[in-house]
From TrEMBL, chain A:
It comes from Natrinema gari JCM 14663. The lineage of its organism: Archaea, Methanobacteriati, Methanobacteriota, Stenosarchaea group, Halobacteria. This is Cobalamin import ATP-binding protein BtuD. The complex is composed of two ATP-binding proteins (BtuD), two transmembrane proteins (BtuC) and a solute-binding protein (BtuF). Required for corrinoid utilization. Probably part of the ABC transporter complex BtuCDF involved in cobalamin (vitamin B12) import. Probably responsible for energy coupling to the transport system. Keywords: ATP-binding, Cell membrane, Ion transport, Iron, Membrane, Nucleotide-binding, Transport. It is found in: Cell membrane. It catalyses: an R-cob(III)alamin(out) + ATP + H2O = an R-cob(III)alamin(in) + ADP + phosphate + H(+). One of its GO terms (molecular function) is ATP binding.
TrEMBL record, chain B:
GO terms for molecular function: transmembrane transporter activity. One of its GO terms (cellular component) is plasma membrane. It is found in: Cell membrane. The keyword Transport applies. The lineage of its organism: Archaea, Methanobacteriati, Methanobacteriota, Stenosarchaea group, Halobacteria. Required for corrinoid utilization. Probably part of the ABC transporter complex BtuCDF involved in cobalamin (vitamin B12) import. Probably involved in the translocation of the substrate across the membrane. Keywords: Cell membrane, Membrane, Transmembrane, Transmembrane helix, Transport. It comes from Natrinema gari JCM 14663. This is Cobalamin import system permease protein BtuC. The chain crosses the membrane at residues 24-46, 98-115, 127-146, 152-172, 179-196, 231-250, 270-299, 341-359. InterPro entries: ABC_BtuC-like, ABC_transptr_permease_BtuC.
Length: 285, 368
């Protein structure tokens, strides 16, 4: 035990924010090498990844940079070839599936569209890890579901079937399901992609509210760098399966990064607030 | 709007038991009525002629219904107490056929519904997945070659079904399965097992056995008696019970593999376990009634179209609709097409076109 404590202390001292105050990490990926079972090719190599506690971290990068793969490893959907992922200092492997689902909520990018399930029923499925095989829902389940529905702002459509909702409403329903899981950490894979602006903001505001009120740690893949720069506390920029840079948006987002990682020429304004203004695509490198 | 009035309703606790809808209740009641009516018609006609009144009087004869010895003889095979000829004909010859129909109808419907959720494939059924032909081959081999093992038929059928299912899955597996690949693998395995079944005919000693075997391959309730009820009732109750209890797991599986895993389900294990239950359920039916085609495929569709896709409702609906349709189909086979006509002929003749209609009506078919 003493040794893990020591390790934890070491982690703590490793990262500090601007004022030199130590930041604790909810999720840590260590010496990760990731590949899919169908091929030998290593997709992601990452010596160290930190998802700081009680903050929102956005993973950004172009298509195919390995963001989703990395998120899959963090959520135990993909077993790393080498390296470990720890949540609150404990190895993911030491959890059984349900225990992990009580610690970590995950929303995948593609959610199979089920037509004939009501929003409320879907949200109740979020309580799965808290219930036994034969248990009915109890008071705590009802409360968690009500809270999740309220937080996602979907009271008005709770009895509507999923098939009749717009893409944005569907996404909010799925997010409510993950919220009902009542976890300290959330991993979201592109929750705003394909949504109209209104629903993009509603999704992001829901996440922000959850983070501020409940101190939930969030790691979210955002495909829009301008949005990520404004929204997240920390950015993780991925490029070609490697971690390009990590830190608060003001430090990470530079013209260099936009050129190197995203292949665009852009101007960046830091005052009054961080703003990315992409101009044109750079010729292929 | 409907949403507004239900908000107040949801504030009350215990609302979550509200998955029982009016439609479901009506559907189940209607199914029960159909089962009873079809059952009564079934017991009223036959070679031993009785008036409707006599037959129904025999069915509801309190001296039989409340006679423990009679039930012991039915269910445990003890000596039958004396009863009138009418009672014997109705209770010993005709009613068990209805009961076997009820059991096979319920188990096949439940089995199909579970398979459709586990594979997330609308086209899945015990037949498509090879379970029917595998179990069928095992049973046929038992009947023709090892006739002494008859009491263990459900078990033997389960072994055969499990083996065939394993082969189908192994063929279709390529880092996951797709509905089309699964169906194709099923077709292949079915063909192999059907050839094996036909090959077995040449080992049969006499024509009588061959005729039984053919009727059996088509799926027939002809000549089923209390013995079949005895063999089937316990594994049927067990498998249906587990399937009903597992309805919520099936609902979560329907959310997709990734989501189910994120929610803390050990997906492979649950899938495996519930597939086992579905194989058992199908094998029970196959052991006593043979391969009734299309039944496990079509009934869950009918139920789904009526009560919706929530498996808690769907499963209950299947348990009621399966018997109703099976007993009705059997009555249809026996009374309109001739006394020896296997019920599988009727289910095939009706189920096939119905499925064709579904295919035409729905834009896409395959993944659930």
């Amino acid at each position: 035990m003493a040794r893990t404590q020591q390790e934890r202390d070491r982690e703590r001292t490793r990262i500090t924010d601007d004022d030199g105050v130590a930041i604790e990490s909810a999720l840590v990926g260590d010496k990760l090498e990731l590949s899919y079972p169908s091929s030998d090719e290593t997709i992601v190599e990452c010596a160290r990844l930190d998802i700081p506690e009680e903050a929102i971290t956005a993973l950004v990068g172009p298509n195919g940079s390995g963001k989703s793969t990395l998120l899959k490893a963090l959520s135990n959907h993909l077993k790393p070839d080498t390296g470990t992922v720890r949540i609150h200092g404990e190895d993911l492997d030491s959890f059984d599936q349900k225990e992990l689902a009580r610690e970590l909520g995950v929303l995948s990018q593609e959610n199979d569209s089920l037509g004939s399930i009501s929003v409320e029923d879907l949200v109740y499925h979020g309580r799965y890890p808290h219930r036994g095989f034969f248990d009915g829902p109890d008071e705590a389940d009802h409360r968690a579901v009500e809270r999740a529905i309220e937080l996602a702002g979907i009271e008005g459509i709770r009895d509507t079937e999923l098939g009749q909702l717009s893409g944005g409403q569907k996404q909010l329903a799925w997010i409510a399901m993950v919220l009902a899981q009542d976890t300290d950490a959330l991993l979201l894979d592109e929750p705003t992609t394909f949504l109209d602006v209104h629903h993009q903001f509603r999704v992001l505001e829901t996440i922000r509210q959850l983070n501020e009120e409940k101190g939930v740690t969030v790691a979210v893949i955002l495909h829009d760098i301008t949005q990520a720069a404004r929204f997240a506390d920390y950015l993780v920029a991925m490029h070609d399966g490697k971690l390009y840079d990590w830190g608060p948006p003001e430090e990470v987002v530079t013209e260099q990064l936009l050129a190197d990682v995203f292949g665009v020429e852009a101007t960046i304004e830091y005052e009054p607030e961080l703003q990315v203004l992409p101009k044109r695509a750079l010729p292929d490198r | 709007m409907a949403g507004a009035e239900s908000v107040s309703g949801h504030a009350t606790t215990g609302q979550r038991d509200g998955w029982v809808t009016g439609t479901l209740v009506v559907f189940c009641l209607a199914s029960t009525v159909v089962t009873i009516v079809a059952g009564l018609i079934q017991v009223s006609f036959g070679e031993y002629s009785m008036t409707l009144f006599e037959a129904w009087k025999a069915v509801f004869n309190p001296e039989v219904i409340f006679d423990l010895n009679a039930w012991a003889s039915f269910l445990f095979g003890t000596a039958r107490p004396d009863m009138s000829t009418d009672s014997i004909v109705v209770w010993d010859l005709r009613l068990p056929r209805v009961f076997v129909g009820i059991i096979t109808g319920a188990t096949l419907a439940v089995s199909g519904a579970v398979f459709q959720a586990v594979t997330r494939n609308e086209l899945a059924s015990p037949f498509i997945l090879g379970v029917s032909s595998g179990a069928g081959f095992a049973v046929l081999a038992t009947l023709v070659v090892f006739s002494g093992l008859a009491p263990f038929l459900p078990l033997i059928a389960t072994l055969g079904g499990t083996f065939a299912f394993g082969v189908v899955y192994a063929i279709a597996w390529k880092g996951g399965t797709s509905p089309v690949r699964l169906v194709l693998a099923g077709v292949i395995v079915n063909m192999v097992f059907q050839s094996l079944q036909q090959g077995l005919f040449f080992f049969a000693d006499d024509l009588g056995v061959v005729q039984t075997a053919i009727a059996w391959i088509t799926g027939s309730l002809t000549g089923t008696g209390w013995e079949e009820v005895r063999i089937a009732v316990l594994p049927a109750l067990i498998s249906i019970g587990i399937a009903l209890a597992g309805a919520r797991q099936l609902n979560v599986l329907m959310l997709g593999e990734n989501t189910a895993r994120s929610l803390g389900m050990r997906v492979e294990r649950v899938r495996f376990f519930l597939s086992g239950v579905a194989i058992l359920a199908a094998s029970v039916a196959i052991a006593v009634a043979g391969v009734v085609s299309f039944f496990g495929l079509v009934v869950p569709h009918i139920v789904r179209n009526t009560v919706g896709g929530d498996y808690r409702r769907l499963m209950v609906g299947c348990v009621f609709a399966g018997p109703a349709l099976m007993v009705t189909a059997d009555v249809g086979a026996r009374l309109t097409l001739g006394t020896q006509m296997p019920v599988g002929v009727v289910t095939g003749l009706i189920g096939g076109p119905y499925f064709l209609y579904l295919m035409r009506k729905q834009q896409s078919m395959g993944e659930l």
